[in-house]
């Protein structure tokens, strides 16, 4: 009897410990760029930063918060969002947030529908493209906005934030310079992408997106549309088409089989990994595919 009671008490303690919430972070950050930039800006301080979106996703328009994520937001002293209309799923959760910093302040948002008139028939589009961090110059604005919010909230660390910001800005300028150098002399500057979020990247490096197809479960590319895309690839002699790392490659594979073009993968840098790794990968991939 005593042995059974001891086992019961041990199990109860373990269960109770597992239900306890993790220590609250000072700052909660939504996407990969927001989290990475905020963490870099906070280096050398005692501030803790936790990411909200950690799953491998390519878009957040259907995203739903878990109970744990809602608790993280509620417990944080500051929530930093990407902004630009990306985090609509956060509207209710942010009502009780102590402080919110919008990283998109001052960023000129692009409207992809002006160039890609087929998006509406694909079943999903953004009125404005919220993936502005794919232009390193916008990422610099993003970092400045985050730094300003941090300085206001934690003025005792202002000098550290400014020093970290200067280093981060230089890394982003180096990234941008690398992209402009590597992609200056491409043999082809036209892209067909299977995600509608690469408009900023294209604008930054003088690329032209012919088509941006948003393909997801329940809205796969139609047979007629595939036929049109195959004709476009053949007529323009495109050497490659591009899918998103966390998206579907089914239709792209069909087009490649019919035309012989290559299929290459680009990264939205929205979750997981490193923003800088994703951006250098994208530049090198475009260079390889279209060089």
- Secondary-structure element series: HEHEHEEHHEHEHEHEH
Strand content is 5-15%
Largest sheet: 4 strands, parallel
Percentage of helical residues?
A: 40-55%
Low-confidence region ranges = 1-20, 113-125
Mean pLDDT: 86
Number of E-state strands: 8
Task: Please give the alpha-carbon distance between the first and last residues.
Answer: 76 Å
Tell the overall outline: globular
A few lines on this structure:
The protein has nine helices and eight strands. It is of the alpha/beta class. The termini are far apart.
Describe this structure in words.
This protein is of the alpha/beta class. 43% of the residues lie in helices and 11% in strands. It has helices at residues 2-19, 32-41, 67-75, 136-153, 158-182, 199-204, 223-236, 250-259, 275-290; strands spanning 27-29, 49-51, 78-81, 100-102, 190-194, 208-212, 240-244, 262-266. The strands form two sheets. Strands 2-1-3-4 form a four-stranded parallel sheet, covered by helices on one side. Strands 6-5-7-8 form a four-stranded parallel sheet. The longest helix has 25 residues, at 158-182. The chain is globular, with a radius of gyration of 22 Å. The termini are far apart. The model is unreliable at 1-20 and 113-125 (pLDDT under 50).
């Amino acid at each position: 009897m005593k042995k059974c009671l001891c086992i019961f008490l041990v199990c109860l303690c373990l269960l109770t410990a597992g239900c306890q919430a993790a220590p609250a972070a000072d700052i909660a950050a939504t996407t990969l760029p927001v989290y990475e930039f905020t963490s870099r800006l906070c280096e050398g301080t005692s501030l803790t930063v936790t990411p909200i979106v950690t799953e491998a996703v390519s878009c957040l328009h259907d995203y739903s918060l878990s109970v744990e994520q809602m608790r993280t937001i509620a417990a944080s002293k500051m929530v930093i969002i990407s902004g630009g209309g990306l985090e609509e799923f956060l509207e209710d959760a942010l009502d009780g947030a102590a402080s919110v910093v919008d990283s998109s302040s001052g960023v000129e948002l692009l409207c992809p529908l002006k160039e890609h008139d087929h998006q509406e028939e694909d079943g999903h589009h953004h009125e404005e493209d919220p993936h502005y961090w794919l232009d390193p110059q916008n990422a610099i604005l993003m970092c400045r906005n985050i730094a300003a919010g941090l300085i206001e909230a934690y003025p005792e660390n202002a000098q550290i934030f400014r020093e970290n910001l200067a280093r981060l800005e230089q890394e982003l300028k180096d990234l941008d310079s690398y992209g402009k150098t590597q992609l200056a002399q491409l043999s082809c500057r036209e892209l067909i992408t299977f995600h509608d979020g690469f408009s900023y990247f294209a604008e930054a490096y003088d690329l032209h997106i012919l088509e941006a197809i948003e393909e997801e479960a329940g809205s796969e590319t139609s047979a007629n549309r595939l036929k049109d895309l195959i004709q476009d690839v053949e007529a323009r002699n495109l050497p490659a088409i591009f899918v998103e790392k966390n998206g579907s490659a089914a239709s792209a594979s069909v087009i490649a089989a019919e035309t012989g073009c290559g299929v290459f993968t680009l990264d939205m840098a929205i979750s997981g990994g490193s923003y800088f790794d994703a951006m250098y990968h994208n530049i090198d991939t475009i260079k390889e595919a279209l060089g």
